Amino acid sequence: MIAFKKRVLDNGLRVIVHEDKSSPLAAFNLLYDVGARDENPNKTGFAHLFEHLMFGGSKHVNDYDTPLQKAGGESNAFTSNDVTNYYEILPAANIETAFWLESDRMLSLSFDPKVLRVQKDVVCEEFKERYLNQPYGDTWLNLRPLAYKQHPYKWATIGKSLDHIENATMDDVKDFFYKHYRPNNAILCVAGNVKADHMFKLAEKWFGPIPSGKKIIREIEKEPKQTSARYLKLERNVPYDNIIKAFHMCSRKDKSYYATDVVTDILSLGQSSRFNQKLIKEKKLFISLDAYITGNMDPGLLVIDGKPMEGVPIKIAEEAILEELALIKESVSDYELQKVKNKLESQHRFGLMEIMNKAMELCFFELIDDIEGVNSNMDYYHQLQVADIQTCAKNILTETNCSTLHYLKKS
Amino acid sequence: MSSLQRHIAPDIHHIPKIDIPEFKTDRWSNNLQLHYLKAGSNEVLRLEIFIRAGGYYSNNILTPGVLAKLCREGSDSYSAKVINEQLDYFGATLSLSASSDFIQLQLYCLSKHLKDLLPYIKDILCAPLLDEKSLSIIKEKEIGRLNISNQKNDFIARNTLDLHLYGPDNPFGYYPKVEDIEDIKLDDIRAYYKQIMFKYPWEIILSGQYKNSILNDLKDIFGDLSFEQNNYIRLNTTVFSKPDLNYIKKLEGSNQAAIAIGQLVPKRNDPNFPALAFLNILFGGFFGSRLMKNIREDKGFTYGIYSSLRSLPLNGQWSIYTEVGLDVYNKALDEIKKEIQRLKKEEVPSEEISLVKNYISGSFLASLDGPFSLADRFKSIHFSGMDYNYFNFYLDEVRAMNAQKILDIANQELFNSYHEVVIA
């Protein structure tokens, strides 16, 4: 159980506090409701590049990290297709340092041209390190535009290509900042050895004076329903073939999200799951085989991702996957469902051990307009029946809803 | 408008000295040591079992890791399927792996389920099936993983560095080839199991929030084991001392160059180790380090560059790792060397020294958060043959660092003689 208090400042900033006296630390998490889906299709990768710029100095503080490290703290951030999330963890007594630094960079960045120039280079190196110089690294750069034809999920957070990053200008930076980095577009959570009233006062002191921005109305093109199977074959210098099958699913906010999550867990969560037990161990068809969901704010993907063993023809491997997908539509046992629920319950309890994790969860559930869900989302799982799982599998796991990528080793 | 002074930092409070909750140790009549600490507010726990059967003790360094994996594939009483069903049904997570010193088992579960799971854990370790079919699947998966890793420049760079630091007959220098994995014989695995599993007394580390009766449950299960001898002898401890290596390998189709630089240094029980740890942070151990500030934040050559100081059972290792643009790797190497020389010649400004001190105090505090972190800290001293006094010594030494001491330790230890590997 995560107990919390929540207030909304006049400028629209939502502030959540969770007290946990067992930790000597405090976690500070600031989520901005902006991600790669909010980018211009001709300037992709921008939300992520912007995240780098947020560490390059703000209006009154020329270096973000140094004062935080002086206070014994550390920070980092991540960008997804949906959100950009910044976080600090530091000794609880020094929590005000995080308020000072985060509020100053929400007030205004320094917009230093050198920072922009260097961070473009850094992000280009990140692009190479993660997506180009890795076996299978460009999988999602290819899978996204296959599965999405309209919706901005068709590009990755790193961007469509290096030149989109190289072409970013300071005007782009400023426009993006003043549109998206306003208090009314952000959620703050402080968790740890702190007092809620004190945190609300600090929030008012440091964030209260920052003017609100225009309300943002998202005008994102909906992905049209997929009506026929899609297929792409790539050949690369990799040691194993890779089959990826991506099916459109609901959004994270939809209640059937939970059943969809369980479908993939029955297939591949744990050593006793169907994929592990049958296709890896008994039939020896794959060296690895996973099923997972992207859990996006707009309708996401359910993904099956497997590497067939050396010598197993891709056709045989794919048929085995399809057999399992057919089976889950017809047959799920109460025992199997209970097993997955137990596993999820256990994961949930372990997740409660870290204050940073709890702060992120609180911000996330606030974002999906269901802050109580931080405590009740296990109930959503517990309420699921076998029929819910089978119905969900029947709806999603169809040929016409599927994009298949055959990522083959060059012969 | 308010009188908010945004250009002035809020006061920084000294990080309070905290009493570290300490593990207790019971030594049973069979010499098995149980270390336990009750902490945390959630009824979850981690059980770890350490068996001195790692790479140091085997003629074939690959054997312990394969044995560890094979153990969980079924026992005399329970098939792998039954074991995995039980673990998953109870929401538990089990892993077995091998390091240089140990084969180690790690179980995470809700505390209320431990008692139900212990019979399976015991069987996995005490009566494993060790069968041919499971071995062949493990081999295939390992070969798969290796073939994929071998396409990563950073993996190749690290291996090449380690090979030249330790030689191929040391667990830290040995990396298998595909043929080595193909050649593994079930008989050898079984023979090693018989020879080593009950040779030296095990150690169990229990951390989390649990009922005291769990301690008795553990004794009921593992109290009747017997072990052959107390004093262990490591094999495979030779270390190469080849002359300084300058290795460059060009690969087809690279987009980046992976750099790995390394040297051997003293380990944790050396009186200079805290000073080394301090210098490591300053040089390349955190986001505000000299290497990051220069090579990423000023030059934009890389997404990240780090130095890492590890204390291993017989020595320490100090390394620098990064991946940089193909066209700038020579420049990056020059800048790394400049930063090394700067620390040997120029005094570090007091502002920077106090920053690093505060950063270390903060991250030390963070490293004590929660029962599993406390267990990790305990392991770092216990398996280095030290006790909790070390932490006070370490923090005192860090507090006492000054410009002269940094110059001294930099001149004494900071990459005077090292190996350098570039995979481009």
Give a description of the structure.
The complex is a heterodimer of chains A (411) and B (424). Chain A is an alpha+beta fold and 411 residues long. Chain A folds into two domains: 5-207, Cytochrome Bc1 Complex, Chain A, domain 1; 230-409, Cytochrome Bc1 Complex, Chain A, domain 1, CATH 3.30.830. Chain A has helices spanning 46-53, 65-70, 95-107, 113-132, 139-147, 162-166, 170-180, 196-207, 257-268, 274-282, 314-330, 334-351, 355-367, 373-382, 386-396, and strands at 5-8, 14-19, 25-32, 74-79, 84-91, 186-192, 230-236, 242-248, 286-293, 301-308, 402-409. The mean pLDDT of chain A is 96. Chain B has 424 residues and is an alpha+beta fold. Chain B folds into two domains: 24-222, Cytochrome Bc1 Complex, Chain A, domain 1, CATH 3.30.830.10; 246-423, Metalloenzyme, LuxS/M16 peptidase-like (Cytochrome Bc1 Complex, Chain A, domain 1, 2-Layer Sandwich). Chain B has 15 helices and eleven strands. The model of chain B has no long low-confidence stretch (mean pLDDT 95). Chains A and B meet through helix 2, strand 5, helix 3, helix 4 and helix 10 of A and helix 2, strand 5, helix 4, helix 10 and strand 10 of B.
